[in-house]
Amino acid sequence: MSSRSENRVKNRAPAPIQISAEQILREAAERQEQHVLDPIVKIHDAEEYQSHLRDRRKHFEDNIRYRREHIGNWVKYARFEEDNREFERARSVFERALEVDGRNPELWLRYAELEIRNEFVNRARNVLDRAVMLLPRVDFLWYKYVYVEEMVGDVPKCRTVFERWMEWMPDDNAFLSYARFEGRCGHWDQAREVMRRYANAYPSSRSFLRFAKWAEFEAKDADLARTVFESALVELEPEESHQARVFARFAAFEERQGEYERARVIYKHAIKLLRLGQEQMHVEGEQDDEVPKWELEKRDELYKAYIAFEKKRGDQSGIEDIVIAGQRAAYEKRVTADPTDYDAWFEYAKMEEDNEMQSGESGTKVREIYERAIANIPPSQDKQHWKRYIFLWIYYALYEELQCHDLYRASKVYDACLDIIPHPKFSFAKVWINAAKLHIRRKDLVSARKLLGKAIGLCGKERIFTDYIALELAMGEVDRCRALYNNYLKAMPHNCRAWSKYAELENSVGETDRCRAIYELAVSQAALDMPEMLWKHYIDFEIEEGEGGKARKLYERLLEKTGHVKVWISFAQFEGSEAGKGVEAARDTFQRAHDQMKEAGMKEERVLLLDAWRVFEKSSGDAQSLAKVDSMLPRRVKRKRMRTDEDGAELGWEEYFDYTFPDDQDANAANTKILEMAAKWKQAQMEEDSSSDEDDD
After folding, report:
1. Distance of alpha carbon 223 from alpha carbon 212, whole angstroms
2. How far apart, in whole angstroms, are the C-alpha atoms of residue 81 and residue 138?
3. Which of 5, 111, 307, 337 is least enclosed by beta carbons within 10 angstroms?
4. How many beta carbons lie within 10 A of that of residue 247, not counting itself?
């Protein structure tokens, strides 16, 4: 810790003297040492010349003695002897250097160039022959050797050197150089044979493409180039022949030759073949990560080339085909990157369905996409992750039914979907219902009933009960509906909607007593999700049956359970209707409600009640009764109160609206008078204090 603190910069203030970049460069230039040139040696006679040679040779020998392994010293020494036309000495220097490092290809090349520069052809041949025998894998030595033979015009000797080189299986450029040499000599048959040997020696897409390019541009033989392209597609392995660049080069060649239909066929075959190969990879569990990045880029270039070709040479149908092919490639890329991207599968299948409808083709492609999509089961057992996945099955079944008109396959799709859902954890009512409705459309009512019965046991959702009951009701099976309602209510006794629908069923078939019994049983339940709806339906039922007294009793029973203002308003409106006792009874009900709410201090509810009462008096009362209600209406007053949080801490003042009723003012009159007197006393005190202050001044 102490060493770190010592190394830390303590003073971060700028230096008093700032140094510029110009100053640094000027100082660096001033401190450079002067470059000392070698003296110019002037030689006047042969003796001085020999003395100079001895000195220089001694200098080179000393350098070699100090750094014997440094090849540059040897090369400079040999170049010095060459400049002085001492060729034997130069050769001796190279031979001595080869004894030090005989496997240095650069040294052999410099030795051969010495002989070539001075036109010692045979000596150059000997040096290069020794070099390639010792280092047969060094290509530039062979290039130099064949260059020498071709420059001197010895074609047979040059061909012999090339043949010796080919025995060592050099790289692609060596074979291409051999073929170009034969072409320059006018021996095109031998050049073609060399390229065939090259393709056989290296059976790859690279060799075949270079062979085809040579045949087209150098040999000017289009038939040979086409034969090479076709052989590449047939003879090479799939991982080599099915590369995008092979098809792209082949199609571009046919386009240059004016064979547009052949080029179009090649493009279509390539895109179809590459897409099928990618799908096969997905089936075998491979990923696009195993495909080289350059291959994916070449596929994109192939597709762009196809688009450009169709724009120049194609028609509307061809352009549509290439657009669809591009969309397929994009969707394949999406589903490959994320197989659980179900939205991509939806769009992919929809695109293929639209294309199928326009072209009139069979549904093999769409069915294949759906099969691939449903094979990607969500990895987790969370229902939220399964929702989009289940729609894939539903759309698949709808496609089989509506597009292919194959109800049997659609039913099998639903069966497979139901088998894959983990019903002990969660289920999907829509799948059960759609499968049952499909059985009905197939006129297999027994299977539909069995399936819905199984759904009640495994799923037991409200929608399954309601749809099953609607099915049986549509067929007039009332007894089956009653049995289903019994099971429905056993599973969900709190469901007011189920009680109401059951009672409506009994009422619709004329079973009034059964309907009333069901309502009584429903309102007697300990827990209900929407009791207000159930009571309303019960009261409406009694009113429709003309049982005003029973409806009144229901209102009274309901008011014992809850004194909600809406119940009071509904009760009063009932009394004022034809089924009730009349307007006076309605006013009495309104008055009862008002008195109870006044005692309970329910101000907002009293306002709602008075508003409803006023509306009622406008429609059914007279001016006197309306004036009475108007006199009871409150006055809205803005007040302030302290706002607190859950712990009781004060958060600040807030404004709110309060209601002041006329009948409550008498009770508050005394308090109001006391407050007024206190305000007057405070005002008087303030005036007295101000006057005393003036006297002191």
Report:
1. 10
2. 27
3. 5
4. 26
Q: Are residues 74 and 94 in contact, defined by beta-carbon separation less than 8 angstroms? A: yes
- Which residues, listed in sequence order, are joined to residue 652 by a DSSP beta bridge? 643
Neighbours of 585 (CB within 10 A): 16
3-state secondary structure of 644: strand
- Distance set, CA 376 to CA 339, 342, 364, 390 (Å): 6, 9, 19, 11
- Distance separating the N- and C-terminal Cα atoms of the chain: 72
The alpha carbon dihedral of 463, 464, 469, 470 has a sign of: positive
Of residues 439, 460, 459, the one with CA closest to residue 450: 439
In whole angstroms, give the CA distance from residue 678 to residue 682. 6
SS (H, E, C) 158-209: HHHHHHHHHCCCCCHHHHHHHHHHHHHCCCHHHHHHHHHHHHHHCCCHHHHH
Separation between Cα atoms, residue 151 and residue 456, nearest integer Å: 95
Q: Provide the pLDDT confidence category of residue 625 given band limits of 50, 70 and 90.
A: confident
- Is residue 488 exposed (0-12), middle (13-18) or buried (19+ Cβ within 10 Å)? buried
pLDDT of 181: 95
Q: What integer pLDDT is reported at residue 5 of this predicted model?
A: 46
- Give the residue, 629 or 667, on which the prediction is more confident: 629
Helix (H) / strand (E) element for 21: namely: helix 21-30
Would you say 653 and 640 are in contact if contact means Cβ atoms under 8 Å apart? yes
Q: Which residues of 42-62 are buried (b: 16+ CB within 10 A; e: fewer)?
A: eeeeeeeeeeebeeebeebee
Residue pLDDT, tens place only, 643-682: 888 887 888 888 878 888 887 655 555 555 665 676 677 7
Q: What is the pLDDT of residue 15?
A: 76
Range of lowest pLDDT (42-56, 113-127, 542-556, 679-693): 679-693
Task: Provide the β-strand partners of residue 640.
Answer: 655
pLDDT at 300 over 90: no
Cβ distance 214 to 188 under 8 Å?
no
Torsion of CA 93, 95, 101, 103, to 10 degrees: 140
Whether the full predicted model's pTM is greater than 0.90, yes or no, is: no
**Sequence letter at residue 574:** F
Per-residue H/E/C for 470-525: HHHHHCCCHHHHHHHHHHHHHHCCCCHHHHHHHHHHHHHCCCHHHHHHHHHHHHCC
Cβ proximity of 459 and 431 under 8 Å: no
Q: Is 90 exceeded by the pLDDT of residue 11?
A: no
pLDDT band (50, 70, 90) for residue 250? very high
What letter represents residue 72's amino acid? G
Domain boundaries, the chain: 461-559, 563-633, 636-670
Encode 522-552: b = buried (16+ Cβ within 10 Å), e = exposed: bbeeeebeebeebbbbbbebbbeeebbebbb
pLDDT in tens, 30-67: 887 776 676 787 888 888 889 989 999 999 999 999 99
Q: Give the per-residue pLDDT at 435.
A: 95
DSSP track, 142-162: HHHHHHHHHHTT-HHHHHHHH
Q: Which residues contact 148 (CB under 8 A, 6 or more apart)?
A: 112, 116, 121, 124, 125, 128
CB 199 within 8 A of CB 207: yes
Name the more confident of 205 and 652.
205
Q: Which CATH code is given to the segment(s) 461-559?
A: 1.25.40.10
Burial of 134 (0-12, 13-18, 19+ CB in 10 A): middle
